[in-house]
Specification:
It is built from 14 helices and eight strands. The protein is α+β, with helices and mostly antiparallel strands. Strand 4 and strand 5 form a beta hairpin. The protein starts with 6 loop residues before the first strand and ends in a 10-residue tail after the last helix.
Length: 389
């Protein structure tokens, strides 16, 4: 009996069937069928392909019953893995924080992350990367976390590593070739407006110190009163936010790199701001009945969460009508102001605690106390009103 065909693809005849392979809930909350098209060399071949597909689905369903994680949303499985396994891995704390922050900000709440772990494929992840407006650096951080997660899944026979063939697209190559880098810095007038609006609060000195030292927020929140001696500021630790047993906390850790351990020198104006801060903070301790040696403590005397600080500043920016900036922009502004003041790049690198940058690292020079003090004296005018003698 001659074969019967009912369609043509790429110049070849096929028999096409459209069969129900499952059900789903649509956007209106109704259960609707999931249909799939099968092509074969005749009707029987098409039906055989449909049966084989359904057998594969059945096997996957049986596998899901044996491995409960496969039926959970991807983000739930990753959240548990981060808390129990990833937070205890041997990566640097700053690296772990980078990966987790990018995952939470840019991936966790996506449609892809809400799919069952069993349903996520390499193609889905690749399409997410290709269609994303995120910077290359953000995608790389997410991808590195997913690689570690799926390696764990594969080693523990949960599922195969679907990220292995996925590639992060190089979206910002052109900018790198032309030396274009997006640096977020504060306008002088806006910065002074923020600092003035923070008068009488402990956040004022946090901002003043950030923009006049270039210290990272994690380094600033780790500071104790013994770290400032006269006009000398010692940075040798940072705070790291961790989660155990469903609870979040803050602990101390080493700085980002060995070069991040540094001694900075504060201008007289910044030292005066420090004395004002000490008085305000002392009164807060009396009012709230706690004692602490942490310069930027919480209202209970403990280390503060970075998110709490950034939320407070964002509300302030909105209230006083200045553009929103990340906290890291204070560090960028510090570096930019050093350049504006004519401070050599080698000196700037030392003051900011940068590690070597490719081959130029061998030309970095040692910075003496007098040179450091001269540099910070030059830039204080960009953020504080200086009274001439």
């Amino acid at each position: 009996m001659a074969k019967v065909y009912n369609c043509e693809r790429n110049g070849k005849e096929y028999y096409r069937i459209n069969r129900k392979v499952g059900e789903k809930v649509n956007s209106e909350g109704k259960v609707v069928p999931i249909k799939k098209v099968f092509y074969g060399d005749g009707k029987k071949d098409a039906e055989d392909k449909f049966k084989a597909y359904m057998e594969q689905l059945k096997l996957q369903e049986e596998e899901s019953k044996l491995v409960p994680e496969l039926n959970k949303p991807l983000y739930q499985v990753i959240d548990h893995w981060i808390e129990v396994f990833f937070n205890n891995c041997d990566l640097a704390e700053s690296t772990k924080e980078l990966y987790v922050n990018n995952y939470k900000l840019h991936f966790r709440d996506t449609e892809l992350a809400s799919r069952r772990l069993a349903d996520v494929t390499a193609l889905m992840i690749q399409e997410f990367y290709n269609n994303s407006d995120l910077k290359n650096s953000n995608l790389k951080a997410i991808n590195k976390l997913l690689i570690r997660f799926y390696n764990y899944c594969e080693l523990n026979a949960i599922c195969s590593n679907v990220v292995r063939p996925v590639k992060v697209p190089k979206k910002d190559t052109a900018d790198k070739l032309h030396g274009v880098h997006e640096i977020d810095v504060w306008d002088d007038a806006d910065l002074k407006k923020v600092i003035n609006a923070l008068s009488g609060t402990t956040l004022r000195f946090l901002v003043v110190l950030a923009v006049n030292s270039g210290a990272r927020i994690s380094e600033l929140l780790a500071l104790t009163y013994s770290d400032i001696d006269g006009n000398k500021l010692t940075i040798n630790k940072q705070t790291t936010e961790v989660a155990y047993g469903g609870k979040s906390g803050v602990r101390l850790s080493d700085t980002k790199t060995a070069c991040s351990n540094r001694v900075l020198y504060l201008s007289d104006e910044v030292v005066k701001e420090f004395e004002k801060h000490r008085k305000i903070h002392r009164q807060e301790m009396i009012d709230n009945k706690y004692m602490t040696n942490i310069i930027f403590s919480s209202s209970t005397g403990n280390y503060r969460f970075k998110s709490e600080v950034t939320r407070s500043l964002k509300r302030l920016y909105k209230r006083i009508g200045v553009p929103q900036h990340t906290f890291h922009s204070f560090r960028h502004t510090f570096g930019t102001n050093l350049s504006r003041a004519g401070v050599p790049i080698e000196r700037t690198s030392k003051l900011m605690g940068h590690s070597g940058v490719d081959v130029t690292s061998q030309y970095y020079i040692n910075i003496g106390q007098a040179e450091k003090l001269d540099a910070v004296e030059k830039i204080v005018r960009f953020s504080l009103e200086r009274k001439e003698a």
